[in-house]
Amino acid sequence: MSAGARTTVAVIGGSGISAIFPEGPRTTHRVATPWGAPSGPIEEGTVGPLRLLFLARHGPGHTIPPHRVNYRANVDALRSLGAQAIVTVSSVGSLREELPPGTFVLPSQFVDLTKQRPTTFYDGGRVVHASLADPFCPDLLGHAVRAGRDAGTPFAEGKTYVCVEGPRFSTRAESALFRTWADVIGMTLVPEVTLARERALCYACLAMVTDFDVWAEKPVEAREIVQTMQRNAERMRTVLAQFLPRLGGVPTCGCARALDEAFV
């Protein structure tokens, strides 16, 4: 690998993605951080020459709700193990007719409506204003677009994700309002994306649509979401098999320099 090459990538699996190593991980890490414990053990394996880390966002058995995930511990633990990029897989609701359940989406912007989550590593001592004008790594997004096409599951690109606190679903009034702001809705993007920027990591979210939220008249039902999520998960594993091996080498982005002008 040449200088500056990306050699270690982390995947945070959301709803439906509980493992990515077909033959099991080679190593399991239990990590402590200044912000407490991450959601669970971090698994390590390889994809070609690339070292791969995997963490289940909601913990073993999917027991941690989105508003209780220790996002700071998750991101810091992955960074401490050498991650240079974080790829997350998340289930989302659709706010657009042209994004039906089963669609894969690549957000390029977000709106933060979370209420009670720590969103920064810098609570005092140093003042940091990290730019989130372009929140997602263009290098990772480019690879994801090509991998989705090659896998026969193209991504809808350039979409906006509105992140709400959860764990409840939207009211009809909220859903109608969110449609004026965004294309998809979820509960886990923030603060993962902001924390990754503060650690100068490449970050991308591969989102899987499970439902139409409540703007489409029918209330969201958890049972139907789980069924769609299971179908999405199999297709996403096919995309990841195309996507992850492409992430080695020298990245074309400037994510590693994200904090060069952020410190006051």
General description of the model:
The protein has 264 residues and is of the alpha/beta class. The chain has one domain: Nucleoside phosphorylase domain (Rossmann fold). Helix content is 24%, strand content 25%. It is built from five helices and nine strands. It has a five-stranded mixed β-barrel. Helix 2 (138-150) links the parallel strand 6 (104-113) and strand 7 (155-164). The longest helix has 22 residues, at 222-243. The two termini are 35 Å apart. The model has no long low-confidence stretch (mean pLDDT 92).
What is the topological layout?
Elements: E1 8-13, E2 27-29, E3 42-47, E4 50-56, H1 71-80, E5 85-94, E6 104-113, H2 138-150, E7 155-164, H3 172-179, E8 184-186, H4 189-198, E9 202-211, H5 222-243
Helix pairs in contact: 1-4, 2-5
In short:
The chain is of the alpha/beta class and 264 residues long. 24% of the residues lie in helices and 25% in strands. It has a 5-stranded mixed beta barrel with strand order 5-8-7-6-9.
Share in helix: 10-25%
> What is the mean pLDDT?
92
- What would CATH call the class? Alpha Beta
Shape: globular
Rg computed from alpha carbons, rounded to a whole number of angstroms: 17 Å
> Could you spell the SSE succession in H and E letters?
EEEEHEEHEHEHEH
Identify the quaternary structure here.
single chain
